[in-house]
Amino acid sequence: MKLKYLGHSAFSIILGDGRRILFDPYEPGAYDGAVGFATIKGVFDLVIVSHSHPDHRWEKAVESAGDVVDRAGEYEFGGIRVTALPTFHDDCDGSERGINLVSIVETEGVRVAHLGDLGHMITAGEMPALSGVDVMLIPVGGHFTIDAKTASKIAREMGPKIVVPMHYKTAKLGFPIATVDRFVQLMDNVETAGRSELEIQSPGLPSTKRVVVLTPAL
Known about the structure:
12% of the residues lie in helices and 32% in strands. By secondary structure, the protein is mainly beta. The two termini are 20 Å apart.
């Protein structure tokens, strides 16, 4: 499979058979232009949405999808298994920003976890399904989500093979959140890829944790 970082918390996965999965498509220009990434183009077979805020749910992408996961539960789409787990978008049981879904996609022998706008610490005891996932896409910018320190703790706690940070400050994002730099400082074995795509195959996964900072494609 090919994992591509589109921008903010949006990622696409292209499977070997050509099917396309999209996580958390942002609405271009949302929040009075604060979301400055370019439009996500194309039609996706499956769209997975962590919550309904415009920087994570663009209705045009959702409406054109073959299938949509936006509620907690377990789903199967022709060999693509999705487990969507309820968490909170804040550290006060959702009273400020509501529910957030953490989603695990399992296909082609690889498990990819997208943590959405997770707002609080989670442990392997609380969410054993996340323990040992192959790829973890994790927010690190703070303010609206967990910050770099909490993200680093979760990454160490869950033990994914590959960690990809997301939801951090860039030149195209006008939110009052931190850049990826602090998270990078807290982690070992960091690769600044200089590219937006990562090819992932089950036999070729690293034996020790690797952090890959991808460049937003849009």
